[in-house]
Design a protein that fits this description.
189 residues; alpha+beta; Beta-Lactamase; two-stranded antiparallel ribbon; 8 helices; 5 strands; globular
Amino acid sequence: MVGALARVLLLDEHAHGHVRDLAVCAARPTAAEPPTAPTSSVGPGVGLLLESLRPPAVVVSRTMDLLAWNPGGLRLFVGMVQRPVEKRNVARWVFLNPGARTVFDHWDAQIRACVGRPRALAGTDPDAPDLVGLVDELLAERTEFVQLWDRYDVRAHTHGRKTFYLPDVSTRTLAHCRSHASSGARSTR
């Protein structure tokens, strides 16, 4: 049934997958207790791996919290080092840091991804504390986020390359990919 609906609506593979996820969630029995946030840390092996990497590297949660990084990875997000560790979040940085706009070459794609990812999560896990806190904060702070949130675009960057223009350093083009960590935390990059 979902496949037929996706064909009639001419949905691409990503949108079809999102509709399938929504259907699975709708078929689940209602949970008796409120949802808990997923794990917000990574195992010690991930930290060791990041330390051994020369290129900048970060591990990002499903709501774009920075979970782990090497020194070069943290420098990709200019000014992030000044933020308290618990507030280091890519979406917050993109929408609330005026200097973020100068870091990416494809700004529109970057901000759409920073909204599309939590928007997709809102369809499958709408009451998750990590998601609700992030979205509420960004809806209250930034009209650009509000406009994109209201579009219901669920497309997110799952893999590819991003170019970072870093002041006083260089231009860096890096690969990124999304994977699901076994600890329950979802991580990318």
